[in-house]
Design goal:
The protein has 140 residues and is mainly alpha-helical. 74% of the residues lie in helices and 4% in strands. It contains six helices and two strands; from the N terminus they run ααααααββ. The longest helix is centred in the first third of the chain and has 32 residues.
């Protein structure tokens, strides 16, 4: 009985994180289409999207660990843009490569990713009240 309840909470939270992940993608794409929104907003939303993607796979981990891992992943992707082998340059010319791998290294992206991760970490910590070991959540 208890195991079933924990499993349902786990599944439910993954579904919620997946829906938030999809909404974040939509907001990120819209942020690039609206001319008066600064580019760093889209970069911050990219980091938020990575946060929720990691959250989908590790819904029971503490938010701080998820934030650190997500930030490290964002930094790795950004620093990977300094690598310019022929195969990865060709991959970056595709839609997938452009959106996921980016096109060029910028220190401002590192700052935007940091801002996005800190922002979503604080939002999650202050708006969600966790039960036993963060296996489920409910709004305050």
């Amino acid at each position: 009985m208890l195991l079933t309840k924990v499993f349902l909470n786990l599944k439910k939270s993954r579904i919620y994180y997946f829906l938030i992940f999809l909404c974040t993608i939509l907001l990120g794409i819209l942020s690039r289409k609206i001319f008066f929104i600064p580019l760093w907003i889209g970069d911050s939303l990219y980091a938020v999207m990575i946060y929720f993607l990691v959250r989908i796979f590790f819904p029971t981990r503490k938010a701080f660990i998820i934030a650190l891992f997500s930030l490290l992943l964002c930094y790795c992707i950004e620093f990977l843009q300094l690598y310019e082998a022929e195969w990865i340059v060709e991959l970056r010319k595709t839609l997938f490569g452009r959106y996921v791998l980016g096109q060029g290294f910028l220190w401002s992206d590192i700052l935007a990713y940091t801002f996005g991760i800190i922002f979503i970490f604080l939002i999650e910590k202050f708006t969600l009240k966790y039960k036993i070991h963060e296996t489920g959540f409910r709004f305050k």
